[in-house]
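Message: Study each token:
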Amino acid sequence: MATLTTTRGLTSEEVLALRDRYVPKGLHAATPVVVDTADGSVVTDPEGREYIDFVSGIGALNLGHQHPDLVAAARAQLERYTHVAAQVVTYEPYVRLAQALDRIYPSSPVSALRPPTKSVFFNSGAEAVENALKIARVATGREWIIAFQNSFHGRTNAAMTATGKTKNSRFPFMRSTSPNVAHVPYPYPYRPLADGGPEALVELHARLLEQVLDTNLAPEHVAAVIVEPVQGEGGFIVPPAPFLARVADICRRHGILFVADEVQTGFGRTGRMFAVEHSRVTPDLLVTSKSLGGGFPLGAVTGRAELLDALKPGELGATFGGHPVACATALATIEVIERDGLLARATAIGETLRRLFTAMAERHECIGEVRGIGAMYAIELVSDRLAKTPAPKLVDAVIATARERSLLLLRAGLYGNVIRTLVPLVITDEQLARGLDILDEAIAANTGGGG
């Protein structure tokens, strides 16, 4: 009988050599680290070196690596059946997850009633975005989508087109992007388009959106506005608090659907189950993925039942969408977040990040801004605080030095000059403090000690 060939026992160097030979360069790895095992907030390479993980699979592991309850849920489902296809039969994990998402759907306290929701599942956040836009267009009978500059919605065709950053995401594929998507500016408080405080910034960006509807597009042609409540890949840009409510109000006045992309912000990352809850906004459609599956591929579109029911039988689906094991771990994810008080833990982590990042900014002139919400915090590095000149090379150097000292970090931002933190919500205080010490040391090592 033939034996399976695995990477078990290979060194980091051997695994990297295989990647170089057989994996295209277009799939870039942010670090040269090879993972052999992972647990909680730590990954270990084949040589036994441990790294504190401040990346969490790019936000897909809010509950950390190998959470015992998620592993148990996956194992139990594996022993029943692995794949059966939701377009062929009905299975309990799929419908129970749709039920759970209806229960926790973000609702505004100013609304007396929240409409019933339905959910459909896919394999990723990008697939979920694609299908949310399809649903919006069919349900409204309109074709245009409004998205925001500096956003990121995925790498498939329509999701890539909705993404508001050209380089890396769209530049090589400009001839094949989808039609009928317009982009408007997203408020960036650190780099505002005009002088004034948060209220003035909200007013400006609301007017810019309305101006697009008055000039470039007729509201009657716009199916949806899709927005990240906090821009993730864009650099953890947190808009002023009233901004999302203003966007939602504009949408309501024109019969345009408000689509919240919570792929990176969802499931406790910002201290609420969903980031739109901070703005007291109830979206028409909610897109989720990443930490929904707890490490398994899963994306979801959840929203007003009549919107999802606007499509006819057979017009939605994916062979592996709503995979039974992923649905089982998603159910366990929601249960653990609620049972273990991880929303409060995310808030506490955020307070630590804010306090220590602010202290770092006092020591290092290269930190232009500290920003975030909940456990979604970042620092923007600049070479000149007054001019706010982006310092992407410094970010790369800091991340490399931190990695050498056993901390994994990831960059972000329009100019690649933001260091973001997506720490697992189960990280210990000791691991969090040690990781932040390493980051502080890495900045000092690359700026002569004082920024």
